[in-house]
Structure formats: structure tokens, C-alpha cells
Write a structure and sequence with these properties.
Blueprint lengths: L1 H13 L8 E4 L7 E4 L5 H9 L1 H11 L19
Helix pairs in contact: 1-3
């Protein structure tokens, strides 16, 4: 988790104002399965983040600890607000 934390910390510093906190979820049924997500203010900021050399370096460090890494871009399809 330290590798993910370093990635998230770098993102927070270099892309301040990204608009959301970073989340790392661990599957209770499969403790080796994680999902990481966070919000972005716009597609351009997300594209700059992904195209930066440091992004590739951080992903490379993550890949050393995981069986797979699949980036994706998602839209909110539904929300529930109590």
C-alpha cells in the first residue's frame, strides 16, 4: 500500500485541485484484489496526469506488486443520497 500511497501523494501535489480524494478499496472476498479511484475536474486534467512521465513511473512501481493494472475512465451512472 505504500506504493499506492506514494502515487496518490504525488498526484495530490502535482495535480492539486483534482476535485476528489483518492480511494483504495480492497475486496474482502479476495484480499489481493484492489480498486483505486478518484474524481477529476475535467478530461484534460486526467489526460495530462496519464500522459506525464511520472505517471508511467508510478504505474511501473505498482505493477511490481500486482498481477494486473487496468486503467479506466468512468462516468457516474447513478447515485443515492440519503
Amino acid at each position: 500500500m505504500a506504493t499506492w500511497q506514494a502515487f496518490a501523494d504525488w498526484t495530490a501535489v502535482e495535480f492539486a485541485g483534482q476535485g476528489d480524494v483518492a480511494h483504495l478499496l480492497r475486496d474482502q472476498a479476495d484480499p489481493q484484489h484492489y480498486i483505486s479511484f478518484g474524481g477529476w475536474p475535467d478530461a484534460d486534467t486526467l489526460a495530462r496526469w496519464r500522459s506525464s512521465p511520472q505517471f508511467g513511473e508510478h504505474v511501473g512501481r505498482l505493477r511490481a506488486h500486482v498481477d494486473g493494472f487496468v486503467p479506466g475512465t468512468y462516468d457516474v451512472a447513478a447515485e443515492i443520497h440519503p
